[in-house]
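hey can u run this one w/ adenosine-5'-diphosphate bound, need the structure tokens asap thx
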Amino acid sequence: MRETQTSEAISPPQPHAARPRRAIWIVALAVCAALLVIVASFPRIERFYLRQAGADDAATLRLATQVLRGALERTEALPALLAEQPILRQLLAEPQNQGIVPFTNELLRQTALSLEVSDIYVMDVSGTTVATSNYRSDTSFMGQVFDYRPYFADALGAGLGRFHALGTTSGQRGYFFAAPVIDETQIVGVIAVKLTLDGFEEAWAESGSVITVTDANNVVFLSDRTDWHYRTVGPLPEAALEQIATTRQYPPSLLQPLDLRTEALDPDIGFGLELANVGVESFVRQTTLIASAGWRVSIHTPTGPAAQQAWTAVLLLSLVVVMIGLVIAIILGRRARLIERLEAEQSLAALLEARVTERTAALKSEVEERRAAEERLRATQKELVQAGKLAALGAMSAALSHEFNQPLAAVKSYAENAGTYLDRGRTAEARENVTRISGMADRMASISKHLRNFARRPQDLTGPVRLKNVISDALDLMQPRLRNVEVSYTCPDQEVWARGGPVRLQQVLVNLLGNALDAMQGRVPQRIEITLTDGDAPEISVRDFGPGLSRAALDQAFDPFFTTKEPGQGLGLGLSISYNIVRDFGGHLAASNHTEGGAVFRIVLEATEPDSAEVAAQ
Ligand code: ADP
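ok here u go:
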């Protein structure tokens, strides 16, 4: 009952291993979901890196702006200071004075060198250059007229002129500052200082980003990308175009729009960073102002590295997620396998247990059955032994009745004689007769006792028995049938002990003697030889002088119900029972024919030491 419950307990309705397996699926789904989220987050991640790239370049932009602004501010004050020199007034008063012009030219050249500006030149009120620091060069300004330049007009009108333009003579981009040369209260000319800006671009080119300076008309004036020069990045009004043409600021043919599209990188926070696409290139752009010049300085950071970083981050994140998923899946897989193995072991154990229980029950019932069968067999054997004994007695009944009748007849005549002797007063004879009667009675009592012992249901214990006693008791019992038979009995002098039961051994001998007598019936002379030998296997042999065992009897004499006797003469059980009795004692019964005729039966037993209690009892 308990086993049944146990086996139910270890085979639950749903296998445990299914749970980790389901968990593996969940992990796989979670990993896929995480990968989707990561891929979907790519724009955000990319924006993060773009912002970072922008932040990194903000310093570069600041520096570039400061340098540019510093250069402009430093140069801005120079014209007014230089205009103060009396030599300029002198020159403008006498422009044809061949003494002053070269002197002034050289002075301006020296000044330009020490102030690190590209050109300093002086114009009269008509805009004609009367002295210049570049008087030695091929592209000297001497005699050139710059009245179209706004800085000239501004200097004349407002006192300070400033302008940036592509130099019409030099072909270099420059920033021009101009101031009036005043004699007393009258403006007699204009002095201009030109700062060449080309050098800045060389420094910017090293940064890896693109820096542009855009003027108020949306024209890219400076940039380390030469192909962007003079490109417009916004609408260029008609008036502005006209003004550019008039002032010859830039050659109008160069003013082509730049294919620029911008959008705010963080529209929500207005961080100032823009995404700028120029043609197929894309940049993060940020801008500062140089208000005095009306310039916007922008730095364009290529987005390539940031996008690459974003992809790397996405890949790394994905890899980490996949690795974590794999590790979890491996752990869960191992757990599932472990649980499966445990379950298999448990169910195998349960199966074995169930089989063992089943087999044990089967064995128990087999043992029970066998025990019952043995019980039945033993009972049957007992019955058979008893039946065998009664059969032997039956066979002896004729002889027994004679045995009893003959002394009874004698007793009767002795008693009658004793009465007669008493009547006649012959007491001595009467006594003698009575004594004889008593002897006869003793003899009959002895026979009766043997018969009773033999016929009694056995309480025959197995143990050491005296074989001599057993043989003489059997001979006593068979005495009535042995009267006309020559019995020779040979035995050793000493007592022979063997393991057995006295009554059953006696029964075996009675059987053998009875069979011998039956075999010799009608033969003369009738002879039986009984031999007892001692040793490790004490042996009683019974030989008769009859016809011996037939071929069939040699083969089957010990089989139950084998008999060659007439119906009513024998049951065929005597030898079968005897065989079993001797075997129960640990010995054996053998049948053979004597070489000189007659059958020989040998009872071979186990020798044993007498034990004191048994010795006393026998
Ligand atoms: P039963 O005496 O009732 O026939 P037994 O088992 O004692 O049964 O004997 C079986 C048979 O063995 C006998 O019928 C007989 O044929 C044969 N047999 C037994 N003892 C002898 C003997 N001494 N001589 C010849 N045959 C014998």
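Residues 511, 515-516, 519, 544, 546, 548-549, 553, 557, 562-565, 570-572, 574-576, 599 surround adenosine-5'-diphosphate (CB under 6 Å). anyway lmk if its weird
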